[in-house]
Amino acid sequence: MSLWEYANPVKFMALSGRVLPVVAVLSGLCLVVGLVWGFFFTPDDFRQGSTVKIIYLHVPAALMAINVWLMMLVTSLVWIIRRHHVSALAAKAAAPIGVVMTLIALITGAIWGQPMWGTWWAWDPRLTSFLILFLFYLGYIALWAAIEDNDSAADLTSILCLVGSVFALLSRYAVNFWNQGLHQGASLSLDKEKNVADVFYQPLLFCIAGFVLLFIALLLLRTRTEIRVRRTKSLLARERMA
Amino acid sequence: MQLGVHTLSVARGGIAVLEGLSFTIKAGGCLILRGPNGIGKTTLLRTISGLQPALDGTIEAVEDSIAYAAHSDGIKQVLTVRENLAFWAEVFGTRDIAPALNAFALEPLADRPAGALSAGQKRRLGLARLLVTGRPIWVLDEPTVSLDVDAVAMFAGAIHAHLASGGIALIATHIDLGLEAEILDVTPFKALAPLALDDAMEGFL
Amino acid sequence: MKALLIRDLQLAMRAGGGFGLGLAFFLIVTALVPFGVGPQSALLSTIAPGILWLGALLACLLSLDRILALDWEDGTLDLLACAPLPMEATVSIKAFAHWLTTGLPLVIAAPLFGLLLNLPSAGYIPLVLSLLLGTPALSVIGTFGAALTVGIKRGGLLLSLLVLPLYVPTLIYGAEAARRGAEGLSSTTPLMMLAGITFGTIALLPFASAAVLRVNIR
Hints:
Number of helices of chain B: 6
Distance between the termini of chain A: 38 Å
Helix content of chain B: 25-40%
Helix content of chain A: over 70%
Strand order of the largest sheet of chain B: 5-6-7-3-8
Order of helices and strands of chain B: EEEHEEHHHEHEEH
Radius of gyration of chain B: 18 Å
Shape of chain B: globular
Structural class of chain A: mainly alpha
Shape of chain A: globular
Oligomer: heterotrimer
Number of domains of chain A: 1
Radius of gyration of chain A: 20 Å
Largest interface: B-C, 30 and 26 residues
Strand content of chain A: under 5%
Structural class of chain B: alpha/beta
Largest sheet of chain A: none
Largest sheet of chain B: 5 strands, parallel
């Protein structure tokens, strides 16, 4: 039983059809628990007041914004190396989710930044990096949309994803060099001492799990849709030929 | 020197158009492809020239031995006829463009910008390009479009000389060039299933 | 390879080749900035390095689709793909020709336009150096973008959308070097980073450009 078997659309459709409802329900549960706990049953921060609670949307969305791109990078590599069509379609399906996650992170960040820093937007390195990431997502999606031939589109976007990843990393360092920021240090780290206090931390973990599961659910749903779109096109092509 | 094609299948936009084609052209031989528009002659010729991957089957030819010419000849309007030819000669590592100019009666036009040529004259320039490539196998896609009777004769003469010197020509054309050539109608090779693809792709159907 | 370079230069120089368009665009951008931000010379000299870099970048961007689109339309790329010249060499040469006809004139003209924006005298050498080091990266990255969008009709806007994010690191280090120079600070670090990006892209990106061009040709 190899993982690659699920590169076959039939097997993928069968498995994802069974997994999707489970993941969707779990994601809903985690989000409800995490958000209700976070919003209503945690104390206000002694410096930031209740504004700190936006962390439950901001941090998971920001994490996902980056991780979705990483997932696209992996699936693009799988497409380039092993040419599994489902992999390319998964990358295509993930991009719009990633762009929304980036947008959520940027918007919640602005809403949080207004009371904390006194400004909606600052050219802080992390904000700037996310803005650049947003542009990368837009370019990637636009390229998919512009090319008609499926395999060519998959090839070109995969290479763009690889090259883009390198340049996104370069941009991250360039932006850090260009402006030292206002951003607080990482909210989460494996070093327990540096973490946010436990009371905030536990519901945050639920929210992050909820966002991850939500992403997986949306990704499965969207990939299934892409496979069906591809199938429709093939059937139409067959009909034209007949 | 020969050009061999074995059970070749070719695809356009991920959809198989022709399948199971086999033929061999020996040195000095010429094969003319026939078939209705849209059957996949252009796709076949591009695949044989190495511009796109074959779906299935093999193409047997010495590496870097094929010269391809199609509807658009890569002619730059602002360069003169001589400059256009000299460029391709240098890219292919041949130096002498005089025989090519001569074969298509382009000497009187040699110093005119290609943009000032008529459609037929441009076509002649595009075909003259084949001569400067120095490649033994010519793969030609509708080479006689916009040529007048004289020019077609010139072209037939050039092919004749090429074959006589041991060259090979594969031509998709509908007009009679007066060559001793085998004719292959590709219509029977039309792909029946639109997608003859690998296992993974079967799931899309 | 030399033949391709010479041909590309000839094409750029002759009628309709667009040589000098980038330069004219650069001049217009530079001339329009004071209308936008006001004529105070103190303000202008502060923003001059950034504006000059941005102007050069946009002028570069403007001419990107010419790198490959014309050769695509008239079938030259198909024929080059059959030629005994690796695609990697073709795209490298094309990027180099683009730099010679667009980037280099911008580098030479930049000090002149610096005068218009009241660039402090200490800033000229770092400006020219940073442009000299940075513009080749703009051409090479731009060629990658042009190769990606070559088969797309009216791909100009998409080309900008794809290329501009890729230009960010080059712009940051380049403009930073020019800015530090204008303020009389040492610009060695950003110049080194800029050189790193330029040499890195020249070494690696042609492989990606050639790969996408092959995909587009098939």
